[in-house]
Amino acid sequence: MIIGQVTAGREAVVFLTVGGPSGRSINLNAVIDTGFTDYLTISHDIVDRLGLPFRESRMYELANGSLASFDVYEARVLWDDQWRDVLVSVAEGGPLIGMALVEGCRLSMHVIDGGQVEIRMPDT
């Protein structure tokens, strides 16, 4: 199970470890974004620090309906004490967890300042 907290700004935040091919990793707080259908967004600075390999550029439809191109890299995420290979998109503004990373899990949150966020794996 992954535990997080709802902020005063009503964001559901969980602690996440992202790793690269050299074995280096970075710990960060990431916001769960239910409108984002892919895995994870991180900054270009984190991509550089971890030495993540470039995979491709992808077009995404943004919330306002416009299209934007994002570079996509290969990374690993420590998810419920197990490493998972994921694709991460480069976007500034803070790490976002998308629904592809949460897929198959049970997500619950108490949406008050300091409320608990829980991501339960299918077998727990």
Can you walk through the features of this model?
- With about 120 residues, the chain is mainly β.
- Helix content is about 10%, strand content about 50%.
- A 6-stranded mixed barrel has the order 2-3-8-4-7-6.
- A hairpin with a 5-residue loop joins strand 5 (about 55-60) and strand 6 (about 65-80).
- The longest helix is centred in the middle third of the chain and has 7 residues, at about 45-50.
- The model has no long low-confidence stretch (mean pLDDT about 95).
List keywords for this structure.
124 residues; mainly beta; Cathepsin D, subunit A, domain 1; 6-stranded mixed barrel
How do you describe this structure in short?
The chain has 124 residues and is mainly β. It has 2 helices and 10 strands. It has a 6-stranded mixed beta barrel with strand order 2-3-8-4-7-6.
Work out the strand percent: over 45%
The SSE string, one letter per element, is EEEEHEEEEHEE
Q: What oligomeric state do these chains adopt? A: single chain
Radius of gyration equals 14 Å
Structural class by helix and strand composition: mainly beta
Shape: globular
Helix content: under 10%
- Helix count, DSSP H or I runs of 4 or more residues: 2
Tell me, rounded to a whole number, the average pLDDT: 94
CATH superfamily: Acid Proteases
CATH topology: Cathepsin D, subunit A, domain 1
First-last Cα distance:
8 Å
Which sheet architecture does the biggest sheet show?
6 strands, mixed, barrel
Please identify the top-level CATH class: Mainly Beta
- Provide the spatial order of strands within the biggest beta sheet: 2-3-8-4-7-6
- For the secondary structure, the number of strands is 10
Catalogue the unreliable spans: none
How many distinct domains? 1
| CATH architecture field | Beta Barrel
